[in-house]
Amino acid sequence: MKQDIQEILFSEEVLTKRIKELADKISNDYKGKDLVVVGILKGSVLFAAELIKNISIHCEIDFMAVSSYGNSTETSGVVRILKDLDNNIEGKDILVVEDIVDTGVTLTYLLKYLEARKANSIEIVALLNKQARRVSNLDVRYVGFEVPDGFIVGYGIDYAEKYRNLPFIGILKPEVYEK
Ligand code: IMP
Ligand code: MG
Question: Which CATH architecture has domain 12-148?
Answer without folding.
Answer: 3-Layer(aba) Sandwich (3.40)
